[in-house]
Design goal:
Helix 1 crosses helix 4. The chain is built from 6 helices and 8 strands. Helix content is about 35%, strand content about 20%. The longest helix is centred in the middle third of the chain and has 23 residues. The chain has a domain of about 60 residues. By secondary structure, the protein is an alpha+beta fold.
Length: about 220
């Protein structure tokens, strides 16, 4: 089977019901995810400081340059392994994630080992923000009404990295490292505004749970 081959529509647990339209669908940028979510630059600075400090300390103790270079081969190799793992994790996370915006809800399908789907009807979305980066990618956090279960801190580890950092008391799901984030935020903003001007459709509360099949307004994980 192909990855997520059980999906009747890519990124969705079921086909869209009558009256619901797909407005936008996309995935995180792998490099932006590694840079901003997995903090690749911070790791680079950390390991660079360790390597320089270790070399300087060895030279101060009287070691030769050749000995310092030889002793630094193992730390450099370990650093390369760490960065390789971070890059692989970011790539897999981006590859297995699909964000979907319709005229009624936001759907986030994610998960490497355990694929899950988070369904957020507009009725439970109080506000959406935007944080742009220098590469035009960005993050779109979603403030969810308190009765929804996903705002509980127990869901933070399940949602990471698709969640706003350091918001543990009231969790905010977040579309992470989205390419052309400003344009996507405009699409979402117009959809939320249009939904607010109409009577709210009947829908299930925002949920995040494992399962096999569910109505289009439910949340599913395989």
């Amino acid at each position: 089977m192909m990855e997520h081959g059980w999906e009747p529509v890519r990124g969705l647990p079921a086909r869209l019901p009558p009256g619901e339209r797909l407005l936008w669908q996309g995935s995180p940028c792998g490099w932006a995810l590694a840079r901003w979510a997995f903090h690749a630059r911070v790791l680079a600075l950390y390991f660079a400081v360790l390597l320089v400090w270790g070399a300087a300390w060895s030279l101060a103790l009287g070691a030769s340059i050749h000995a310092v270079l030889a002793s630094g081969l193992l730390p450099v190799a370990l650093t390369a392994v760490v960065f390789g793992l971070v890059a692989l994790l970011a790539w897999l996370s981006a590859r297995t994630t699909v964000y979907t915006i319709t005229n009624r809800r936001v759907v986030m399908r994610f998960g490497i080992a355990l694929p899950m789907t988070l369904n957020l009807p507009f009725a439970v979305v109080e506000a959406a923000g935007l944080l742009t980066h220098s590469d035009t990618s960005g993050d779109i956090p979603l403030s969810v009404a308190a009765p929804a279960r996903v705002v509980s801190s127990m869901y933070w580890p399940l949602l990471w990295p698709h969640v706003r950092p350091w918001r543990l008391s009231r969790v905010e799901p977040m579309l992470r490292a989205v390419p052309d984030a400003a344009q996507v935020a405009q699409i979402l903003g117009r959809a939320l505004a249009a939904s607010a001007s109409q009577p709210a459709p009947a829908s299930l509360p925002a949920t995040l749970a494992p399962g096999a099949e569910a109505p289009a307004h439910g949340a599913v994980a395989a």
